[in-house]
Design brief:
Strands 1, 2, 3, 5, 6, 7, 8, 11 and 12 form a 9-stranded mixed β-sheet that branches. The chain has a 5-stranded mixed β-sheet with strand order 4-14-13-9-10, with no helix packed on it. It is an alpha+beta fold and 299 residues long. It contains 8 helices and 14 strands. It starts with 9 loop residues before the first helix and ends with a strand. 33% of the residues lie in helices and 25% in strands.
Amino acid sequence: MREKRRKTPWGVMVVTVVFVVFLAILYRFTEHGRQNIEDIAHGLADGYIKEYTVKPPPEGLTMEEALLVQKEFIQQIGRAYGQAVGYKVGLTNRRVQERFGIDEPVRGFILERMLRRSPATVPFGFGTRLMMEGDLIVEIKDESINRATTIEEALKGISRVIPFVELPDLLYEEGTRLNAPLVVAINVGARLGVIGEPIDVEPTKEWLDRLSSFRVALYDQRGEKIAEGTGANVMDHPLNVILWLAKSLKKQGKKLKRGDIVSVGSITPLLPVKERGTVKAVYRGLSPEGDVELTVTFD
């Protein structure tokens, strides 16, 4: 009598498929995968330090892998740029997020030797693909910021704001189609930034309104306005960026600390640095004492 053929239960098949997928994912993070992460980070850091554009990593880089690349990248460029003093949050504009196909910002680190005081001079052609934008730095007052759930609560957890013209570097060769993992891998493009004098903040409705309504305008060496934006351009209010960052850090068991600084992102559009000369940034409505001006000369 012929023996009946035994069928493999569906449950066993599903478990087997899941296990195979798990092994494939695990493989990416084994010693082979780790070496690949280090190789990518080394290539990016070498281009960053020696100032030449680089080819992007192979397609398919995940956000998890990009964060590992970023960690290695920062360790390598840290020899030239020092320790982290705060965070850079990028892709905070809603329309930019839509173009990148994401629904939240990305983050990197600001290193201590990335900041210069206004008036500042930067060699023309510095970096690889140097850009500029009007930005804002927020300084953390205390760790109560990590418990804030509204912008009103967040305002109580910050001490000062600092006008900030950021000079990010795209690093990748021309024609690269950027996506969120590629941006994260190069530390969200952090390269240099010019800061003004800190402005003390009070936990009042006036300051809450001030932070969303202040304007930044960039002017070229001929005095022509080349970009403009308001505080509301970053997630509708700069303090929403801080709330997002605290929540993002919490997922990794980290938190914001007293004295940390946070760059909130592109208040004005991002522009390429194309020519020598002095660029002026004017912050209107941010300081109760009047307009604040920053200058950076590309020489």
